[in-house]
Amino acid sequence: MSERIVVVGAALLDAGRLLAARRSAPPELAGRWELPGGKVEPGETPEHALVRELREELGVEAEALTRVPGEWPLREPYVLQVWTARLHPGSPTPKPLQDHDELRWLAPDEIWHVNWLDQDVPAVREVAALVGHGA
């Protein structure tokens, strides 16, 4: 069995809204929505990876807050961990810089209006419960 690789996802919150990112690549994922994030590199903590990925993917400065309970299997050997996060005051507005073609802030009653990637659904359900978005 190979060593697992952690992928971090950001439940980026602003005034009760959750940021969703629509994939533009690879083709099999294009058009589906996910929590932004990416792989934790060797020697990096998940929190540092999350901050780095948000900077690289969305051009924002943010901070990781709390790990969402649970860990979700992706394609072997990857597992998903999700952290709540918030933008630093004065950070630029998030914009899709790589792998995404649209970002959307979802109000509590809109969280299930997008077609989430199957692998993100359990994590989004946990985030929704944590922040009172319902399931």
Automatic annotation (TrEMBL):
Its cofactor is Mg(2+). The keyword DNA repair applies. Residues 3-130 form the Nudix hydrolase domain. Gene3D superfamilies: Nucleoside Triphosphate Pyrophosphohydrolase. It is an enzyme of class 3 (hydrolase). It holds the Pfam family NUDIX. PROSITE patterns: NUDIX (PS51462), NUDIX_BOX (PS00893). It catalyses: 8-oxo-dGTP + H2O = 8-oxo-dGMP + diphosphate + H(+). One of its GO terms (molecular function) is hydrolase activity. Its EC number is 3.6.1.55. Keywords: DNA damage, DNA repair, DNA replication, Hydrolase, Magnesium, Metal-binding, Mutator protein. Belongs to the Nudix hydrolase family. This is 8-oxo-dGTP diphosphatase.
